[in-house]
Specification:
The chain is about 10% helix and about 50% strand. With about 300 residues, the chain is mainly beta. The strands form six sheets. Strands 4-5-6-7 form a four-stranded antiparallel β-sheet, with no helix packed on it. A four-stranded antiparallel β-sheet has the order 8-9-10-11. A four-stranded antiparallel β-sheet has the order 15-16-17-18, with no helix packed on it.
Length: about 300
């Protein structure tokens, strides 16, 4: 083969590779989803909702609007809460009592997806709450009805308003002793946690932390936890899906277990959980401190007594 033929064949080969590469890149670009940064997003507009393109989806009004996010901080739905008030009966602070709530759930374009009506009497701010599921599944979202101070009960409803469970927290004889309190709920991937705190005018306190599966069946936990919280993932800038649960040790000290999304303990008996990032915890356990992975293995360990003042 002479040199001219070789150069010509080489040129056609390179052209073919270039055309093929262009077709592959075009196909990738065609199938690549539009990132959230490129798509319109929602913003709270006073007590309404507006898009980043300037479209007013929900004008400011009397109802409350909240943008529901998944655990990756992606916008999923808009929750509208309409509170129905009893203007004739009032609290000790002269606020109207709540008679019930209507929750309306919309997609990001403002189309109604679901409406749930809940009847419950009590304090306007603390009686009924909607809790969005961590995995953004509406069917796993739950509603907490807190009437502990009026009839001693907590109730959990599914996302259609059906009652899953009802717990009698206080007996009728105890009701007059407790004047203030609150309750809230954590809805994780596969379990529910309800925390309540009650206070009396003479300084007494009563609290509890209850665990259930998604269907409302009580879960038995290894400790009597006071509360749990979803630890933040500092590396990925989102909630981690791991939960820190606080309880009192045998000597009265505060201890912490780390739970996964199923409510299973993956690390037990920590003195502190300070930070989490991409599968690693900064912790203290006993007289040691350092870095642990999500299996509870020490990646780095040292004595907590590293300074003279310790």
């Amino acid at each position: 083969m002479n040199r001219a033929c070789f150069v010509l064949r080489r040129l056609f080969c390179l052209l073919g590779l270039a055309v093929g590469l262009c077709l592959v890149l075009a196909g990738c670009a065609e199938n690549e989803p539009v990132s959230q940064a490129q798509a319109p997003f929602l913003l709270n507009y006073y007590n309404g909702i507006i898009t980043s393109e300037g479209k007013l989806i929900f004008p400011p009004g009397e109802n409350e609007y909240n943008i529901l996010l998944d655990k990756q901080n992606r916008q999923c739905y808009v929750l509208e809460t309409e509170k129905q008030l009893d203007l004739e009966n009032r609290t000790s602070y002269n606020y109207p009592l709540l008679e019930g709530c209507i929750f309306r759930i919309y997609d990001l374009q403002g189309q109604l997806q679901k409406e749930i009506a809940v009847q419950a009497k009590g304090n306007v701010d603390d009686t009924v709450g909607f809790y969005f599921a961590a995995d953004s599944d509406l069917a796993k979202s739950r509603i907490l009805v807190n009437t502990i101070l009026t009839d001693g009960k907590l109730q959990i409803l599914d996302c259609d308003g059906n009652s899953l469970l009802q717990e009698q927290i206080l007996s009728p004889a105890e009701l007059n002793h407790w004047q203030n309190g609150y309750a809230y709920m954590n809805v994780t991937d596969n379990f529910i946690n309800v925390v309540y705190d009650l206070y009396s005018n003479d300084g007494d306190m009563k609290n509890g932390s209850l665990f259930y599966d998604k269907n409302g069946k009580r879960l038995e936990m290894p400790q009597d936890y006071n509360y749990i919280y979803n630890i933040y993932d500092e590396y990925n800038s989102r909630v981690s899906g791991y939960y820190v649960a606080d309880y009192e040790g045998t000597q009265g000290q505060s201890l912490y277990d780390v739970l996964d999304g199923d409510g299973q303990v993956i690390i037990a008996g920590l003195s502190s959980v300070d930070h989490y990032a991409d599968g690693y915890f900064v912790v203290q356990q006993g007289f040691s401190r350092g870095l642990m992975d999500v299996q509870g293995n020490w990646i780095y360990q040292e004595s907590q007594f590293v300074d003279l003042e310790d």
